[in-house]
Amino acid sequence: MSHNQSSGNAKLPAPCIVDTGIVVNKQDIQRLLSDLSRVRYCYIQDGVAGSESDGYVMEVFSDPQCSTLVANRTLYLNVHSFDYLELKQLDNNQSCFDLVQENRQLRLIPVSNPVEEQSTRRLNAAALEAVVTEVLSAGWDVRIDDEENFSF
To answer: Nearest CA to 86 among 94, 75, 96, 78?
Structure first.
């Protein structure tokens, strides 16, 4: 097998991470976290567990000027607050996301199933579309009735 080291154009393939691994790319971290909604979170500093509760991921964003905020059982996660994300499988085969920065770690364990939530979102979108169609149709009916009543 031959490998041309001198070629400046030689590119390594993008990583493929399945269920376990370390993710350092901020875009990849944001993509992984954006599917989360309800989570169990635990804040760990210097190996000592601190705050722990259930919460809801309200927003996942990428801004070097803003903080990650966890308060009132809501999480606003800034991928720039962390050096990397470690993706793990717990003993019960549940995914675990460890957001790590130096001696601090924010562990997120999904409580909700993204597959089930996606189908619920589709149903909600279909229901909303039906309501909008009904309202628009009713608006046209009113406009037609008004035109008929005021015709000479």
So the answer is: 96
